[in-house]
Amino acid sequence: MVAGTLYGAIENLLKLKFIQLVESGNSRRKVYMITEAGKEMLRLDSERMQIALCLIFSFKAERRYRKMKKI
Fold first, then answer.
1. Buried b vs exposed e over 37-48: b needs ≥16 C-beta within 10 Å?
2. In the beta sheet, which residues pair with residue 19?
3. Fewer C-beta neighbours within 10 Å, C or N terminus of the chain?
4. What is the 8-class DSSP label of residue 18?
5. Is 21 helix (H, G, I), strand (E, B) or coil?
6. Quick one: the chain helix, strand, coil %, rounded to 5?
7. pLDDT in tens for each of the 71 residues of the chain?
8. What is the pLDDT of residue 69?
9. d(Cα 23, Cα 1) in Å, to the nearest integer?
10. Sign of dihedral through CA atoms 14, 20, 23, 28?
11. What Rg do the C-alpha atoms of the chain give, in angstroms?
12. Which helix (H) or strand (E) holds 6?
């Protein structure tokens, strides 16, 4: 990942209010914290990915079962 990609992603997360800038003692360093909206989006996205994985594994298992049944 290049710096421009990272800064673009951070900018998008700020605009969506998924993260917020936190004061730090260092003027050269920026610190961000996840917001409640960000936590909720993270939870929903994690749930979505878990469902997708379950579907993938069940599809693979079904294919294996069908292959075994043919033998």
1. ebeebeeeeeee
2. 34
3. C
4. S
5. strand
6. 70, 10, 20
7. 676 789 999 999 999 999 999 998 888 899 999 999 999 999 999 999 999 998 888 888 787 777 777 65
8. 72
9. 25
10. negative
11. 21
12. helix 3-15
